[in-house]
Amino acid sequence: MKKTKGGFYISQVKQLSDRVFQRLLKEDGINDFNGPQGRILYVLWQEDNLPIIEISKRTSLAKTTLTSMLDRMEMAGHIKRNFDTNNRRQILITLTPETRALKNKYEIVSNEMSELFYKDFSDEEITDFEKYLYRIIKNLKEIEE
Fold this sequence. Notes:
Blueprint: H1 6-27, H2 35-46, E1 50-51, H3 52-59, H4 63-75, E2 79-84, E3 87-95, H5 97-100, H6 103-117, H7 123-144
Antiparallel strand pairs: 1-3, 2-3
Helix pairs in contact: 1-6
């Protein structure tokens, strides 16, 4: 295979998009959490009351990283840990009402970020690009598991 730069470009995209997204959140008055915490909140806004292992799968964050982030988010009042009534050994992560209320503001900023991200892309290019990214993720997850 020829020498490629895809991984390098993906790293740059991640770094740049994290900084821009953080700035957009701040401009919209959302200073309560950072970009990686936003990924956790995004998952919980889609489906609340999830076990840590499920959040880890959906965000691709390592369980150890996730646990320390959840500690900080709990101290900041964004989430609560609750025991699963069906399995006392399992802890479920639930959004607080205050954080649940931030969903609409976050979605507005997220949509703005998507517009910036895909500026000058056709719908077909977006579809193809996301298919390729999904294939890369799938390839890497196979190796990780």
